[in-house]
Design a protein that fits this description.
4 copies of one chain form a homotetramer. Chain A folds into 2 domains: about 15-60, Arc Repressor Mutant, subunit A (Orthogonal Bundle), CATH 1.10.10.60; about 70-195, Orthogonal Bundle (Tetracycline Repressor, domain 2). Chain A is built from 9 helices and no strands. Chain A is an all-alpha fold. In chain A, about 30% of the residues are buried. Chains in contact: A-B, A-D, B-C, C-D. At the C-D interface, helix 6, helix 8 and helix 9 of C face helix 6, helix 8 and helix 9 of D. Chain A binds a DNA duplex through helix 1 and helix 3. Chains A, B, C, D: GO terms for molecular function: DNA binding. Chains A, B, C, D: InterPro entries: DNA-bd_HTH_TetR-type_CS (IPR023772), Homeodomain-like_sf (IPR009057), HTH-type_Tx_Regulator (IPR050624), HTH_TetR (IPR001647), Tet_transcr_reg_TetR-rel_C_sf (IPR036271). Chains A, B, C, D: It holds the Pfam family TetR_N. Chains A, B, C, D: It comes from Aneurinibacillus danicus. Chains A, B, C, D: This is TetR family transcriptional regulator.
Chain lengths: ~200, ~200, ~200, ~200
DNA sequence: CATGAATGAGGCTTCATTCAT
DNA sequence: GATGAATGAAGCCTCATTCAT
């Protein structure tokens, strides 16, 4: 399926490192704008202002750079959330802050969204593993809170996927489409729903 | 530039109608399994057991059949939900039944999910219009219920997108990935969360 | 190269005759407007308002109808010139009238020009035979006139091809492109050149 | 819709330049022999002994290379005539030399003829512009000669098109079909006709 | 390390022709 | 005679990848 003669190279020089980063940055823009399948390697190398051959010095294939890109963004995002929510003990506040950081991250990396969504059609494993990794932390956090009696008891996995679905759709609608700044009031209302549901008290 | 002489045809005979349907059925499977970009016209015509040329008797392009397919599935799904929830007045029960029908539909049309998600990368307009159409009905329904005081008052648009996100992610996880039958108990728990939230009473 | 299962049919009924003529008329328009290679059988059958299958009742192939069309137009043109110049004995007057009739014919059959020119790229034989037939008569006529001492003596073949080239280019420029009516004065000037040349007396 | 990423390239290296020229040379032969519509890209690349993909490194389409080819031949031909007739002041001699060079050029580029004729069915604009450019120079030259009283006064445009028609048809008949060497005697006779016409003195 | 010309498999699309009704 | 659905060979074009410089 996938031939290769040059092994993927980890850059050994400063210059090489820079070139590789230029390619990754270019890929983020190109894949984000055109989509993985519509984008071509030339699009990326032109955007990065390097020649076609250079691409294959650092990446094995189109799939390869996509994978590396998506994985690094996932890592960054998880890290941002982790750091931003450090020290918050109250579950509700933690969710509130998590949402805020997620939407902020989305605003900064406008293409992240399309990148993640496409992963499903480029590399199923990549897509699944993202959800598994992300949900794992989420689930165990929720479970803790439930055991401590902080929040109502539900199937924590179900809850995690509900929250992720909400983040996804709200992010899509308001950050990606409407390009509105997601205000604190907006997030407050969202958290209010999560906390209280739609049922009358 | 010059008008096409082999225009896309609406079939004029019974036989033609059948052939077109065979192609649509084949496309559902092929697009669902391989994804739009990985699938080729030949994949579809082989699955439908017709020759390649026949495809172009009824469709203008790969995009064309995809669009027709997605639009017809959207219509069917909305219709199924509409019919299934007719006569239900209680909002919570309506949501419960809506979820049930949605998951059922998903189980029957295993590929619907992937089809819808891909629309974003095939035809942005198609994707947007789906969300707009679907959410419009949802929003106005929620607004009614709020005005009647049946449920808590939130931004109905926000609520609609939350619900849609939940349906999407829960469907993805349990119907698509786990391939579990979504039991009534499962839906009850889901609805319980929507009704009461995670906050302690 | 050319398969066939149905032999070309000479229509046996009035209805058949009409259908065949409709196809020929349609072909004149379609080939004339789009050109042989750009035109499709469907273009012709649609223009003729008959079904695709009907075409093959009367013609063996696309080349076949083109050939029949071109040959019949050639015949008509030659006939028109022959009849129109009957009885003219003076060579110069004969040329004058020949030009007039040719341009008139061109005006009536706007597509004839493109049809003839394309013949070269559809069926070399057809093209050659047209020139041979047309020039044969021309040459022998010129030869007669020379022998009678009516006109200067030249290689009659050379003269014939010069005249044909003139007709072709003048027709192209003024009838086809400019769509001007070719006046008698215009033809007179043309004949004057042919008679006297560009040299000062 | 989406800008092409593999844009047609002007070759940046010597090697590239050579390859492009090989393709142009091959196209001259292939288009000349088979005709534009009967020729395929593969025919051209095989003749040029390069791979199919290479074609698209330098040309956008079959039309594109045809256009470039025809335009460059036109330029060369006009240049050859211009250079060859430089310094000739006598109009009749100028025509004589013009004819000679034209037929010589035709003999060298046997396919030029078919190439030019086909232009009409490939790119109408190209065809027209050729005639306009070519005739423009011709017309103004004739006009000058008339004003100087060197030759009889006619509509110079008419005369130019007559001469072009003669060149075309004589070239077709004797260079292309008969493949005879066009002798000086032959041209002398031609020029004699142009000078003196067919009328008796 | 960087370059960009060359490759060719793979996919889309057209349309002349056939044939069952 | 007429119909139009079905066929599939043939051609255009793209672009991921290789490799000589």
């Amino acid at each position: 399926m996938m031939k290769k003669s040059y092994a993927k190279l980890e850059p050994r020089t400063q210059r090489g490192m820079k070139t590789k980063q230029k390619l990754l940055d270019a890929a983020e823009i190109v894949f984000g704008e055109k989509g993985f399948h519509q984008a071509s390697i030339v699009d990326i190398t032109q955007q990065a202002k390097v020649s076609m051959g250079t691409f294959y010095t650092y990446f094995e294939s189109k799939e390869d750079i996509f994978r590396e890109l998506v994985m690094s963004m996932q890592k960054n995002m998880r890290k941002a959330i982790k750091i931003g929510t450090q020290g918050i003990t109250d579950r509700i506040e933690l969710e509130r802050e998590g949402f805020r950081i997620f939407f902020q991250f989305l605003q900064k990396h406008r293409y992240l969204y399309r990148l993640f969504r496409q992963a499903e059609f480029v590399d199923v494993e990549l897509h699944r593993s993202y959800f598994e990794t992300f949900s794992r932390g989420y689930i165990s956090g929720l479970q803790d809170s439930m055991e401590k009696g902080e929040i109502r008891a539900y199937n924590p996995e179900l809850l995690a996927y509900c929250f992720m679905g909400i983040m996804d759709y709200v992010g899509m609608k308001w950050v990606l489409w409407e390009q509105q700044e997601v205000t604190d009031e907006f997030i407050d209302e969202l958290v209010c729903f999560i906390k209280n549901g739609i049922g009358k008290p």
